[in-house]
Fold this sequence. Notes:
The protein is of the alpha/beta class. The chain has nine helices and 22 strands. The longest helix is centred in the last third of the chain and has 19 residues, at 279-297. Among the domains are: 4-32 and 71-102 and 229-304, FAD/NAD(P)-binding domain (3-Layer(bba) Sandwich), CATH 3.50.50.60; 116-227, FAD/NAD(P)-binding domain (3-Layer(bba) Sandwich), CATH 3.50.50.60. It has helices at residues 12-21, 39-47, 52-55, 113-129, 140-152, 173-185, 279-297, 338-346, 351-357, and strands spanning 4-8, 26-31, 35-37, 56-58, 67-70, 73-76, 80-83, 88-90, 93-96, 100-101, 132-136, 157-161, 189-191, 206-211, 217-225, 230-231, 250-251, 264-266, 271-272, 318-322, 326-330, 335-336. Strand 6 (73-76) and strand 7 form a beta hairpin. The strands form seven sheets. It has a five-stranded parallel sheet, covered by helices on one side. Flavin-adenine dinucleotide is lined by residues 8-14, 30-33, 39-40, 42-43, 72-73, 97-100, 102, 106-107, 141, 232, 235, 268-269, 277-280, 282. Belongs to the FAD-dependent oxidoreductase family. Residues 69-275 form the FAD/NAD(P)-binding domain. Keywords: FAD, Flavoprotein, Oxidoreductase. Pfam families: Pyr_redox (PF00070), Pyr_redox_2 (PF07992). One of its GO terms (molecular function) is flavin adenine dinucleotide binding.
Amino acid sequence: MTKKIIIVGGGYLGAELAKSLENHLDVTLIEQRKAFVHAPAMIRAIVNPTLLDRALMPYDNLLSVGKVLHGKVTSVDESGVTLMDGIRVDADYIVISTGSTNGAAFKPAGDSIDDFRAVITGLHAKLKAASSVAIVGAGTVGSEMAGEISYGMPDKHVTLISSEASLFLQMPPKFGAELTSKLNDAGVDVKFGVRVNNLESLTDPYSGTLELSDGTTVIADLIIPAVGSHAVSDILARLPNINIEKSGRVKVDNYLRPSSFANVFAAGDVASGGDAMTIVAVGRQVPWLSKTFKALAAEQQLAEIKPYEPWKDGKSPLFLPLGPKKGNSFLVIGTFGNWITSAIKGKDLFISKYRKLFGLED
Ligand SMILES: Cc1cc2nc3c(=O)[nH]c(=O)nc-3n(C[C@H](O)[C@H](O)[C@H](O)COP(=O)(O)OP(=O)(O)OC[C@H]3O[C@@H](n4cnc5c(N)ncnc54)[C@H](O)[C@@H]3O)c2cc1C
């Protein structure tokens, strides 16, 4: 009998894993939304919402053998999952890849793609009307947002606020230093080493005055919080021996299992096993999971399979475009500038790659 696998969450992890396994196991991918949201393109879509037509991708053509079931999973156990509408699906293996949430315009808060479109187009209208924009948080999303606005709407006065001493402290210093000078050249005012004392929302843009820890203020027509992701792990909370971190991520063992249920796995942003919350990490986890489930389906034991190894510190690549033409990339051997960053990510934001995965015309 063909082994059954349920994958909960059709984001980067779930969609790619389902596709890679559909000819080997009986695959059911359960996803609450009607379309996949290609997060890296949402930053540019706030500046240019026409991008949404290509970057929100329906699930209809993703699988040809496996099934996509649309619905919200509300509980997980050793033999399967239950959906909000009461539907029960059983399987031999269960992978939880429920991902994470972020700022309201960066990732959808709920299951409605129409509502998410409305949030992005609404924010675009506010951005168009604004003269001054303050972005709170200078991680990848905040820094890219500053770059996209300064490229696409150069008339805006953009302030990027970081609590750290420089951009991307975890990377070689050249990476952050070059990005800072490119942002400055584009007119972005980057403030380092200051915290916002009165941020009104961690997710929703608003207009107002930011009080900074150095006693100064920033008045902005539009304040965009870009303070990071929070993992979506509520359906795992009641599993035996689960350990949920402050970030919402669940601790996993070196076979990517979050609890004492031997056949329940967790991966992608929801899982904390040494990787960052990135598509780059997903790109390492999917091949291991795919190989592992094919081996398990062929009656191999998990103990015979080599455990998963996360990216080693400082080895994971990072592409940071500032609009389509500029930016910096880190690729193991060093830091690369505008040309490489534009060619690999900035120009297309990997949209074509994912449209191909989802069986869509480019
Ligand atoms: C704006 C932005 C830009 C980014 N750019 C990059 C980048 O350029 N490079 C990079 O490496 N990383 C980037 N990231 C990080 C990247 O988006 C995440 O690492 C990635 O989304 C993780 O994939 P995932 O499959 O684990 O989760 P997600 O992509 O979050 O997918 C989870 C899926 O699970 C579904 N789901 C959740 N709960 C349920 C449930 N109960 N029932 C059914 N379905 C459910 C959701 O609807 C969703 O489709 C970016 C993040 C943001 C916010």
